[in-house]
Design a protein that fits this description.
The longest helix is centred in the C-terminal third of the chain and has 15 residues. The chain starts with a helix and ends with a helix. The chain is α+β, with helices and mostly antiparallel strands. The chain has six helices and twelve strands. The strands form three sheets. Strands 1, 2, 3, 4, 5, 6, 7 and 8 form an eight-stranded mixed β-sheet that branches. The chain has two domains: 117 residues, no CATH class; 109 residues, no CATH class. A hairpin with a 2-residue loop joins strand 7 and strand 8.
Length: 248
Amino acid sequence: MNRKQFIQNEGATCKNWSWSFISHDRQKVIFGAWDSEREQDRAVILREEWEFSARNKRLPGYKQAIEHLSYLNEGYELYTFNMIHSPKPDNPDVAAIKGFEHRIEKRYLRKEGSVWYADTIGHAYPEELSMPEQYTEGARKAIIVNAYERSAEARKACIRRHGTVCKGCGFDFEKTYGDLGKDFIHVHHITPLKTIGESYKIDPVRDMVPLCPNCHAMVHRSNESRPLSVEALRSIIGEAKKKTGATG
């Protein structure tokens, strides 16, 4: 069975047979993961530098991969299969496949800088992503778990206004960890970006709030259609402290 037959057997297809595939019926996004791009419990499936070839030609597979990743926000799941890379020095634009494993595995998307990873471990809350300096958010292309793109400048503006102390439990990383914890905090979007469209102008003061990773995870752990409000979270923390007799 060749690679195309293997992908079709999984109910998936694509516009051009590069490195990403999709099955709308089974709601799966499938990426080939090179053995040369593997890092412990995760594998690189896409790099921003792959948008262009060695000869500076725009590669259609990159645009297709970004499109496929956008479906992870629609409830599709990410899978990968391992591929063995075979260098082709006479044609650097072609990534030759020496072989591949006839098995797909469930993975979780994570982006760090300009690299997208397929991780074996899921995350409890949306990660924060960096993007160009603008306050427009919600563009569905660089996706991690169920996160939409985050504006780095909007995040900075939120912290300038609200500080880096958690608005849920009051935890201060710098007080606990010294210089190591200085300026560290997560920023929570009060209104989920997926509910406000693809070109919503974020107000960093009104729409964003600093939360520690624990509180950030807890507001997203709610079974409701929207995250818990920070006020509701504070109430839960207060009630829990009353029951345990905790202070602070």
